[in-house]
Design goal:
Layout lengths: L12 E6 L13 H20 L3 E6 L13 E11 L3 E12 L4 E14 L17 H20 L12 H4 L3
Bound molecules: coenzyme A.
């Protein structure tokens, strides 16, 4: 099947939610598990907009909660594809908070997630090529190759000897 290449802007997702009491811990901060759930959904939407078929979450890279998002603040998740491979897609997520009364905006955290497109038999299927346009999209596209190798080595799916770009970090010749 012929698939036209797409740009990151074609599948870019911005998702906002108000942080309600049921979303928070006893300190009045958004709970990490609730945030991960919303990030997973935003990234799944972005990757499905790219491949136009069902996807599953294959992996979530390091997730550090830098700044908590407070009860009553607005949570915004931006999800953007950085690169597509054969059947998988890497999505960059940027999470920010905003106090709507004072208009104070702050960064909360960032993460990369990988999604795999599935065919009707729930087997991985090919995805369209992603063509970066801006300088930052091009930089993220380049870095995606190295991040892919790290996550595949750590999950036991790739031998360090096979990691072209990162081989030197893991293997002594
Ligand atoms: C993700 C999954 C489809 C991969 O299936 P698989 O049989 O290992 O398939 P393959 O080895 O052919 O890999 C398919 C793609 O997944 C990627 N992949 C597999 N494991 C991965 C991991 N841990 N991290 C990142 N990518 C991964 C491969 O690199 C490959 O990408 P490519 O085709 O672009 O090179 C399968 O492991 C799965 O269904 N996992 C459960 C997903 C799930 O339930 N998620 C949570 C709920 S949505």
């Amino acid at each position: 099947m012929l698939m036209n290449p797409k740009h990151p802007k074609d599948s870019f997702v911005v998702m906002s939610e108000l942080v309600l009491p049921n979303d928070t811990n006893t300190l009045g901060n958004l709970m990490g598990g609730r945030l991960m759930h919303l990030m997973d959904i935003a990234a799944a939407i972005a990757s499905q907009k790219h491949c136009n078929c069902p996807v599953v979450t294959a992996s979530v890279d390091n997730l550090s909660f830098t700044n908590p998002i407070k009860l009553g603040n607005l949570l915004t998740i931006e999800a953007k594809l950085t690169r597509s491979f054969k059947t998988s897609m890497e999505v960059y997520l940027k999470v920010s908070g905003e106090d709507l009364y004072t208009q104070y905006k702050y960064m909360s955290n960032e993460a990369y997630m990988t999604f795999v497109a599935l065919d009707p038999h729930e087997r991985p299927r090919k995805v369209p090529e992603l063509i970066p346009e801006t300088d930052s999209e091009k930089a993220m596209y380049e870095g995606a190759l190295r991040r892919r190798q790290v996550r595949l080595i750590l999950s036991g799916k790739m031998k360090p000897e096979e990691a072209g770009e990162l081989r030197a970090l893991f293997v002594k010749d």
